Prior knowledge:
Elements: E1 6-10, H1 16-31, H2 37-46, H3 50-58, E2 62-69, E3 72-80, E4 93-101, H4 110-124, E5 129-135, H5 139-147, E6 151-160, E7 163-173
Parallel strand pairs: 4-5
Antiparallel strand pairs: 1-2, 2-3, 3-4, 5-7, 6-7
Helix pairs in contact: 1-3
Amino acid sequence: MQEEKLFIRLADQKDAELIAEMSRQTFYDTFASVNTKENMDKFLREQFTKEKLMAEAGAPGNFFLLAYLNQEPQGYLHLKKSVNPEELQNLAAIEIGRIYAVQKAIGRGVGSSLMQAAIDFAQRKNEEVIWLGVWEHNQKAIKFYLKWGFEKFGEHLFMLGDDPQTDWLMKKNLR
């Protein structure tokens, strides 16, 4: 049996289409079964378009890490410099906008490797905090973030189509 080789690299503009396609597919795979088709379709059509996602790949303050297993893309992580939530005030902070593995890679260490790479990246950038938003009903993800030392510090509204959902804001102190 061949040993699986996982590596992570910083993406660039040439990866925009791959990132957009993986973003849409992993989001759909993760949330379609627990949301209505109408809300999923509206979100993908209006807020999560391939064009918008491709534009993120080259935008200032956006960083994407791609995970490969045996030279095949298996997941990605989106880090972004954004306006801090009120609770974080003026701390040097970076947001994990998205972290996903493709279905066949779940449970194979992709998420953990991406999270470690994100923390390492944030520390190299001298960030004090790394934070994210996660749907309050996504218990699998919340458990993963808690295992990595994240803690809930607030909530915000996330519109999925016409469905207002509550995201927990979670942070990990890096210093």
